[in-house]
Amino acid sequence: MRIVFAGTPDFARIALEALLAQGFDVPLVMTQPDRPAGRGMKLSPSPVKQAALNANIPVLQPHSLRLDGKYPEEAAQARQTLLDVQPDLMVVAAYGLILPKWTLELPRYGCFNIHASLLPRWRGAAPIQRAIQAGDAATGITIMQMDEGLDTGDMLVRSELAIRDDHSAATLHDDLAELGAQALLEALQHLRDGTLQAVPQPEQGVSYAEKLSKAESVLDLSQSAQVLERRIRAFDPVPGSTLSLPGLDQPVKVWRAQALEQQHSAKPGQVLNVSAEGIDVACGEGALRLLELQKAGSKRQPVTVFVQGWQSR
Could you say which residues bind (6S)-5,6,7,8-tetrahydrofolate here (predicted)? Predict the structure, then answer.
């Protein structure tokens, strides 16, 4: 089976390396163009491109696949390359480009997508973060047969994963990346055996996971401490969560916190207590104990270190 792989970040790299480890024939990898990164802003390859180069697999990096779009020559070249490769299947994982109809129909078995939620719960750009933010007890991976809709295709394999109380978006991402690779291999085994079943998504329970914005990073302390604690974990590492503390000119980033069921009559944002255990801040309901913070221009610090250079006033 000839599989073209299309993906960009580490989440996709894990799946690509799993395919290669199982001996699948991957004659071509597609990924986003190199982007500036680091202090020097030098062009850097995506994690998927680096993995492909390490395996001596040709890499295609079009800016777009739309034949009538902004880069028609690149799209036409990509189409011809795919026709020459004659793939049986395309596997797509966090690729970052919209696949037009011609792309979806070109492989013999179409395109399988590794989606980081239990569809149809979280369709869209940020399913990992929104699942934590919403307080979902579980999430998972759906291997989906792609169609022209936004994550609306038939479900092929679903694998569930419990969301722990200490899961951040970063750690849940890593767990789901491993689960996604396993679910993909399961789907491919069913495809080989002729036992793969496509199940339409139910019309009930659809949610849209909107793309994260920097504006969301500011913590609204009129909300409950429980909601804010989930938000902090959901936005770690991007875009992070910020709040203002007395005596500091700039907001601080909050990387870890604990929700306290504490009764108080203080205004949201008022510092209730400072100790070696944390900085307790009043919320609309309960209090938020700050455990790991970061001043502008500094590194992340546990609260025991942070309070040494800060005094509430």
Answer: 117-120
pTM of structure: 0.94
104 in a known ligand binding site: no
| Residue 143: closest CA among 96, 201, 205, 202 | 201
Is 75's pLDDT higher than 50? yes
Hey, what are 165's tokens?
Answer: 């109380």
Question: For residues 69 and 98, what is the distance between their CA atoms, to the nearest angstrom?
Answer: 11
Architecture of domain 214-309: Roll (3.10)
Least confident range from 39-43, 51-55, 199-203: namely: 39-43
* Tokens representing residue 279 in the block: 């900085």
Report how far residue 248's alpha carbon sits from residue 294's, in angstroms, rounded to the nearest whole number: 12
Q: Is 120 annotated as a binding residue?
A: yes
CA distance 254 to 231: 10
Other CB atoms closer than 10 Å to residue 266's CB: what's the count? Answer: 14
Question: What are the residue boundaries of the structural domains of the chain, listed by start?
Answer: 2-209, 214-309
Tell me what the mean pLDDT of segment 44-71 comes to: 96
Residue 312 token pair: 């509430």
Bridge-based pairing of strands 35-37 and 42-44 is antiparallel
Q: What is the 3-state secondary structure (H, E, C) of 200-263?
A: CCCCCCCCEECCCCHHHHECCCCCEHHHHHHHHHHCCCCCCCEECCCCCCCCEEEEEEEEECCC
Spatial separation of the C-alpha atoms in residues 288 and 67, rounded to whole Å: 52
pLDDT bin (cut points 50, 70, 90) of residue 17 is very high
The response to whether 119 counts as a known ligand-binding position is: yes
60 is in an annotated binding site: no
Residue found under tokens 């792309």: 103
Structure confidence by residue, pLDDT tens digits, 123-182: 999 999 999 999 999 999 999 999 999 999 999 999 999 999 999 999 999 999 999 999
